[in-house]
Design brief:
Order of helices and strands: EEEEEEEEEEEEEEEEEEEEEEEEEE
CATH class: Mainly Beta
Helix content: under 10%
Radius of gyration: 18 Å
CATH superfamily: Hexapeptide repeat proteins
Structural class: mainly beta
Number of strands: 26
Number of domains: 1
Number of helices: 0
Largest sheet: 9 strands, mixed
Shape: globular
Length: 197
Amino acid sequence: MSFRVAQTADVAPDAIIGQGSSIWHLAQVREGAVLGRDCIVGRGAYIGSGVTMGDGCKVQNYALVYEPAVLEAGVFIGPAVVLTNDHFPRAINADGSPKSAHDWTPVGVTLRRGASIGARAVCVAPVIIGRWATVAAGAVVTKDVPDYALMVGVPARRVGWVGEAGLPLKETGGGLWGCPETGAQYRQEGETLVREV
């Protein structure tokens, strides 16, 4: 076996687990889920049916990733994060009958390459979290997040920009922002940020 599954983990037989991945104690990976290479699913985390994770993703302890979420390569999901999948949640229908899986259509959260979601944050589907964006711990995301955005609060709002190294960028003038670690330069265009080539 080219991946590791803890004895207490519950992994569906048809889930696809990439080489070098690890699924830790009490985690659950549901039917049809696809995990890329070198992924980590932490203790007690939940990966829903049909969720797709790219290479190098980390889902920390007790995070809940509900279907049909899509995580591109290098996504970080902090401890106890929740990615929702229902606009109008109810346990029963209006007539009092129990709601079944056929009574609603799940909607998903998409996280683009390198995005990071801090501990106990909630992403309310459907939203797209842009490439290399960072959502701070405890934030509640209700709208799409641009690439490189630093989001905080309830509801989450952009308070700055972060680079691919994860550090807040420093404004250098003329609409340019710089990374204090790598020296990479970014140009702000309205409410978006683009890395300079």
